[in-house]
Each structure stands twice: as C-alpha cells, then as structure tokens.
C-alpha cells in the first residue's frame, strides 16, 4: 500500500509521525510519501529557509524540540545573536545554530544548481525517517505574502513569516498572495507519489496557508482529482478552535468560519466543488471522506448529504498513541471508500 499525505508544519509533522507508527504496527508493507507545503519559505540573511519541510524532517528524525514545538532539540543561539547584532536578521526571527547548519547546507546546494527536491532528498539521507519520504510541493519559489491595511490608509503587504511570527497573525489580513504561483508546477516527486497512491490523506494542517497553498499550485488539484485512490481529509479545527497555532486568523481572512464543517466545504466534495474564496471561481472539490472530532458530530449528517463520507473520531494528537490511532482511522476511512467504489 502506498500512502500519500499532504501536510504543513506542526500539525502535519505530528500526524505523519503518528501515521508512521500506525504503519509500523498494522501495515508494515506500506510506504509513506509526504507532499509538504513550501508557501512559508523565504530568504533571510542570504539563506533559503523552509519551515514546514524542516518541521517534518526534524520531527520524523527525532531531532525536534518537543518543549518549544519547533526547531532542533539542544539548540543554542550564539550565531543568531551575532546576526542580530549586525542587523542582518530581525530580532523576531531567531535562527538556531544547529538549524543554521541545515539552512547553510540547503542554500549551498541550491546555489550549486540543485532543485529543492534534490536538496530535500540529500537532507533526509542523513537522518533515519523510518521509511517516510518528503517531497516539496513545488521546486519553484512561491512565497506567501499577506496584505494588511496601512496606518496612513491604503494597504501594503508583508512576507507571511513577518505577519505570522512578528505580529502573531494579529494584524487583520485582507488577503493572501502566493507570489510566483502562476509560473509554478508541482514537483516531479509529488506527482509521481500521487500517481502511485492507494490512499491520499490531507493532514490536519492549516487549510489556507498550508493545504490551500499546496492545492493552488497549477496542476496540483487536477493531479489530485485524477488519482484513483480515495482522498481523506482530517479536520484541523476541533469545536470551533484551531487546536494549536493561529489557523483561525487565516480562515477569517478568506471568509471561512473556524468550523470543521466549513473547512470540509472549503475543500469540497470530489463529486462537486469547494467554496469560492474571495472573487475567485469555485474550484473542483477534493474530498471523498472527512474526519471530524467527536465534539463536532453535529456536522456529520450535513456533510454526508453533501457527498463527503464523514465520521466523528477523537482528533486531538496528544501523544504518539493518539496520533497513531487518528492516522489509522483516516487510513480506514480511505480504504472503506476504496472497497465501496
Ligand atoms: P504550521 O505549518 O506549523 O502552521 O502547521 P500546519 O500547517 O500543519 O497547521 C497547524 C494546524 O494544525 C493548527 O492550527 C491546527 O489547526 C492543526 N493541528 C495541530 N495540532 C492538532 C491536533 O492535535 N489535532 C488536530 N485535529 N489538528 C491539529
Ligand atoms: Ca507552516
């Protein structure tokens, strides 16, 4: 069995770590490929930074800082202090010393002509990811910018990282812009993984700036809709809240309620269309099946009537066991669709 996951950073990494555990126990023959959001990537201090890819790399390698929730375990910040003293990096974005090693290696390889996919392949050679393979959603640079109102009237944009990290997503976003999107293409590794997939899982990740960015890469939505495999989504929203992080601020910016049912309708049933965002046209839908938390059981019947096979299960990934149980539930929801069709 070949399992493909679409994932952002923290929610995606927790889910994939749980899925890897479920596969070890119950499906030892299965392979896991992860298509990772690159919309949060940016250039800082002359280095290319890829936060979501690194969250997955470090978490699956057992190198992540569990206390902080991001970055490397045992990290120090001596170089960061130097960079900030020179004014090369802002005080609101710290690059740890060990983390800088990854960024320097990545940038060196990119500068010597390697694609981001090749860079990711080289980075994961060093660590044992337990058989999981990571693929950037695209090799093209598509950095997310956020448009906000200016004090003096009018509006201006800032890089997603500044909006997210410096302003904690508290500046009301007028809209998101994926700069470079029109010319971008899905990575070859992502497309090959989708073609071979037996089940596709949309992880409980930010529906706007993680999953939304992946599926808006030209060609990606068509590639997803072309797979024979069932597509199962897991809600990142539980009982009207974003669990961890600030996904609610992103949903508000595109006019979607912070609600497990509203996110399912944003993605849309594969037999129909997703919700239109802003002035854009409605896009063809993605979901065969959807998991909501037991606290959201009230939305199940309505979503089923809309053509999305929905079930309510515990969605909180508190630890490895609960994440593995959730991943297994997603897998079974997909396999049930496969045998039903
Ligand atoms: P980021 O790139 O680090 O922001 O991470 P993601 O794109 O993966 O999305 C983070 C989102 O994942 C959070 O805002 C939550 O909505 C969701 N999330 C995080 N932890 C959990 C969890 O335990 N259960 C569920 N269902 N969703 C979660
Ligand atoms: Ca992210």
From TrEMBL:
GO molecular function: LPPG:FO 2-phospho-L-lactate transferase activity; magnesium ion binding
Keyword terms of this UniProt record: Magnesium, Transferase
Lineage: superkingdom: Bacteria
Top-tier EC class: transferase
Gene3D superfamilies to which the protein is assigned, alphabetical: CofD-like domain (1.10.8.240), CofD-like domains (3.40.50.10680)
Keyword Mitochondrion: no
Keyword presence, Transferase: yes
EC number from the UniProt entry: 2.7.8.28
PANTHER family tied to this protein: 2-PHOSPHO-L-LACTATE TRANSFERASE
UniProt cross-references to HAMAP family, sorted A to Z: CofD
Protein name (Swiss-Prot/TrEMBL): LPPG:FO 2-phospho-L-lactate transferase
The species this protein was found in: Microcella frigidaquae
Lineage: Bacteria, Bacillati, Actinomycetota, Actinomycetes, Micrococcales
